[in-house]
Predict the structure.
Amino acid sequence: MNEFRRTISRGDVNDLPIRRYEGAVRLIETPEDLQGAMADIRQESVVGLDTETRPAFRKGESHLPCLVQVATARAVYLFPLQRMDFPGRLPSCWPTRSSSRPAVSLAHDLRQLKLVFPFEPASVVDLGDAARHGGVGQSGVRNLAANFLGFRIPKGNRTSNWAARHLSPSQITYAATDAWACRELYLRFRELRLL
């Protein structure tokens, strides 16, 4: 599959098989959990990155990110920021500057994350920008996964309550899938020399 489309129709996306992340997912809630995540994440040269924010339904209302997702080759780590009493240590588990952190349309989320804890967002690769530079008109995770990976990512939990005390199994799968898809897309883009 060395070909890709400049655009993909909604119908073509909907005809594709649904795929969700099926690997290990680790919810990071204790310093010990964080230490284990750090050991894995620091070994990686590429980690998928995504965030989830509680939806706002009123004009002028906005919220800070509630969840950060980091995908390695072995697991996806979910960092529920509002339940962690150590969010300031989160940037220390991110990969070094020599690592790549692919994400899609993350600029706003990174600015918002800086309001939660200080960090420098080094080595973040916006896959949407890379796709646009490659002549692809649609740059959301769902369209990119359909176009470059050949499967459809369900987006049903996008507007769920990410600030909930306990995430549902479907929220956990949704969040893990987005970060995993970003990592898979980055690897595919490298194959196609879009990066």
User: Anything to note?
Assistant: The beta strands are 24-27, 48-53, 65-71, 75-80, 101-103, 124-126. The helical segments are 10-15, 31-41, 107-116, 127-133, 141-149, 169-191. The longest strand covers residues 65-71. The chain is about 35% helix and 15% strand.
